[in-house]
Fold:
Amino acid sequence: MSFTIALAGNPNCGKTTLFNALTGASQRVGNWPGVTIDKKVGKIKGTDSELVDLPGIYSMSPYSPEELVSRNFIVDEKPDAVINIVDATNLERNLFLTLQLIDMGMPMVIALNMMDQVRQLGDKIDVDKLSDGLGVPVVPISASKKENIDDLVAQVMSVAEKRKSPEPMRYADDIMRLEAAAEVALEGKVPQDNIRFYAYKLIEDDSAVNDKVPGARDSLKMAIKDLENQYDDTADSIIADSRYSKITEVVSGAYTRAPRDERGTLSDRIDKIVTHRILGLPIFIGIIALVYFIAMYDGELGTSPGAAATAWVNDVLFGEIIEPGVADWCDSMGVSEVLKGLLVDGIIHGVGAVLGFLPQMIILFICLVILEEVGYMARAAFVMDRIFRYFNLSGKSFIPLLVGTGCGVPGVMSCRTIESEADRRITAMTVTFMPCGAKLPVIAAITAALAGAWWVGVLAYFGGIVLVIMSGIILKKFRHLAGKPAPFIMELPPYRLPGLYSSAKTVFDRAWAFVKKAGTIILLTVIAIWFMSHFTFSFQFIDPDEDMGDSILAGIGGVFAYLFMPLGWGDSWELASATITGLIAKEDLIGTLAVVLGTGEEAADVGEMLALLLPKSAIVSFFIFNMYCAPCFAAIGAIHRELGNWKHTGIAVAYQCLLAYAIASIVYVVYGTCIGDTIEIYSYVIAAIAAIILVYVLVAKDPFRQFSRPQEVAHDLG
Amino acid sequence: MTTLKETAVGSSVNVKRICGEGDLKRHIMEMGITKGVEIYVRKVAPLGDPIEITVRGYELSLRKEYAELIEVE
Structure:
């Protein structure tokens, strides 16, 4: 028989490890509809049944996208059975979700995971008693040691075949009476299979259920109020209390705790040092520095393995082997110049520039996945939260931002480790404000253009940080962009050794997602820009080194140039066209300028030419716009992966461009006036408008503020 | 009235009531902080906030602004 089985459980309970153990290599990764949460599906080994991995959640509330996805799947798709994986070392909290699943009436089996650790602690669990108390079969397993997995599969198959729903949980009589009344009110309005779940949700005043069956709660209002008065608490608290009381009752009968080592567990002792009042911050900085030196660093002290690998792929593999190799092959086969140009200078150069980051990303992901699996990421958030909350971000945003100073692509992709959707999205939209490695030639050129001004590099980094902070404040005000902020109440999981297979799998999945992107959307845009720079509007092939002025790109640049008039550098199509090619890779901006301005290839040569063309204030505005506007296509592709659709990606890119434009315009006018450059009236007008809008979005009241900072709400039962 | 926010590091308390409402309150309760449960305050983060507690046998960290909503005795 072939069944659909869902795998549900809390975060940090070994769910991914169990999923891998059950499905092996047969996994497909996709996205849940409408959200950027990975949906993993695989075939359970030795059966025809499919296993769907639900996101790790603590409850079936409708407050996070993870929770909504999970409960919609169970209610709407009706899997034949649910495997509820439960961390045996943290039984009470894990069983809260279990009780809600039982309410949903799903045929289910509990996989009691981490039994090896329970034994290690010397604790005993009476599995039969636990199973009797919950009315659900319980299979003790260890996912990491692959213990009892076959037994679990056999149990799940038999439960799915019988489709036997668990007996309802018995709470206090007055609650059961109210629940029965709620079922009557819901009769015929919701699926009969899940009516008990809806009934409790109706009593709890669950927003999603209220939307689904409007008015159903009205007939219960009196009865709910009586209950609330009697318990002196709100209905949802009463239900949560009852569930936890039931759990305490079941667990206390089944769990025997061995006396603990007085010094605490090994995890406790590690944690004492890692999050120590004084040592905590230095350790955090040390660990981050270590990751940076392994994956990103390239400078006076040497070259990190990550930077070396990427340099090798870019310079040697693509630069010396593939590009010349294909060029030679084209020559020997008599391929036309146009096709050869497209293949070598267009596709291979463009896609190569993107794929070149792959080795660095893999090394970085290995570091991040290890930190995640060990349990350090949660501690990093704990240590840094105080600082980041002021920008409306969580402590976990620090790592993507730091990685972003090396390359925006892995920076954006490392946002996956941020659980809160709002923080994840905002971080993904702002990482590329940090000056990445490819922007260094631009910084070098502008430094030369401003006669070696030392402050250009400082401005680039400082400005990036300021823009991230501003964006944190601005973007939180747009809920459809940012998503709903989650309160900072976070589990600190025990330190564990990372599972080798799971870690490798995660790294591979993330890297593969990037390669797919390079092969599709990035490839297309690269071809489009190559085409525009190598053809005239009458589709005549030209050599851009000679007469790029006739190309489509120059024409488009000429049009865009008008947009940049208020910034002081709109008089020439060259600068606008270079801004467009900067979308392939920011260093291409300098390459294009070298070609169209007819200077040497060195950044300094380009800079000196710019100094002749533009006044100082316009050079600074050109610099600011190009530092912070839309990032390269590879980074846009990565942002798309984190935001989930092109609409939001488009809005994010437009936001970046507008913000860069506003800042460039304001700085141009202010700086230009200070040093006595001639500035047109319309520049003043645009800068004034930009400043007004910017100040407005910065100080406007945050309509969703109450979610991130609770007001002292009086305990009001009326 | 004492709240979890004022509880000294290293001491154990019992939860008397949880103030606040809606999303936030429910989330606090779902994580196992319910009436009567024992909470041990383990430590404060290096910068003074958030705090780390042990509840129902596991470690949980929460900001002081939320700890303030939890009345204890």
Q: What stands out?
A: Chain A has a mean pLDDT of 86. Chain A touches chain B through 48 residues (CB under 8 Å). The longest strand of chain A covers residues 81-87. The radius of gyration of chain A is 29 Å.
